[in-house]
Structure formats: structure tokens, C-alpha cells
Automatic annotation (TrEMBL):
Primary localization class, coarse: cytoplasm
Cellular component aspect of the GO annotation: cytoplasm
Family, similarity comment: Belongs to the histidine acid phosphatase family. VIP1 subfamily.
Record's protein name: diphosphoinositol-pentakisphosphate 1-kinase
EC number in record: 2.7.4.24
Keyword Cytoplasm: yes
Keywords: ATP-binding, Cytoplasm, Kinase, Nucleotide-binding, Transferase
Pfam families: His_Phos_2
PANTHER family: DIPHOSPHOINOSITOL PENTAKISPHOSPHATE KINASE, INOSITOL HEXAKISPHOSPHATE AND DIPHOSPHOINOSITOL-PENTAKISPHOSPHATE KINASE
One GO MF term: inositol hexakisphosphate kinase activity
Lineage: Eukaryota, Metazoa, Chordata, Craniata, Vertebrata
InterPro entries the record matches: His_Pase_clade-2, His_Pase_VIP1, His_PPase_superfam
Location of this chain's protein in the cell: Cytoplasm
Length: 111
């Protein structure tokens, strides 16, 4: 990654994190943590100041935010998981049915 790409990545993240109303979008904290972690591991040769401190602080925030990303209570987590997983499970079921039907047709008309 070039320094220019790194700057673009951080500029976009800053725009997304700091909202127009002056508040912050805390859902971006995991993204900040990921970027800091990436830069700590892959761009340490740049010798950026306070990177480890930024990593420590972003990890502390991420440790609080990430578990709550998909609901706080068990019921909320179940609702969110169902909303994500149900369409996928239905697609898998449909694909399996189609595969089973195709196999039945191929058995009747082998090549």
C-alpha cells in the first residue's frame, strides 16, 4: 500500500466517523481498530508517532462496541441473526432442492 492510499483510507474513515451534525458514528470504531491494527502490523516502517497508543485505545473501544454490534440482549441478537441467516438458509434449501431434482432427471436420462 502506498502512503497516498493509506491517506485516502484514513480520510474516508474520518469522513464516515465524524458526522455532519458534529457527532460520531460509533459503528465505525471497529473499522478504526482494523485500520490501526493493519497499519501497526504492515506500515510500522513509516515510524508514525503514537501508533501503539492509538492501537491500544482503539482496541479498548472496539472491545466495548463490537459485542454490541449485533444486538445487546439475547432476543436482539437472535432477531438480528435470524434476519441475516434466514434468507441464506432458504437459498441453501432451494439450491439443494434444485440439485436433487437435477439428479433425478439425470438418472432418468443418463448421458
Amino acid at each position: 500500500e502506498t502512503l497516498e492510499l493509506m491517506l485516502q483510507r484514513w480520510s474516508k474513515l474520518e469522513r464516515d466517523f465524524r458526522m455532519k451534525n458534529g457527532r460520531y458514528d460509533i459503528s465505525k470504531i471497529p473499522d478504526i481498530y482494523d485500520c490501526v491494527k493493519y497499519d501497526t502490523q504492515h506500515n510500522s516502517s513509516l515510524g508514525l508517532e503514537d501508533t501503539l497508543e492509538l492501537f491500544r485505545l482503539s482496541r479498548a473501544l472496539a472491545d466495548i462496541i463490537i459485542p454490541q454490534e449485533y444486538g445487546i440482549t439475547k432476543a436482539e441478537k437472535l432477531d438480528i441473526a435470524s434476519a441475516y441467516c434466514l434468507p441464506l438458509v432458504k437459498k441453501i434449501q432451494l439450491d439443494l432442492q434444485r440439485t436433487h431434482e437435477d439428479e433425478a432427471v439425470n438418472k432418468l436420462h443418463p448421458l
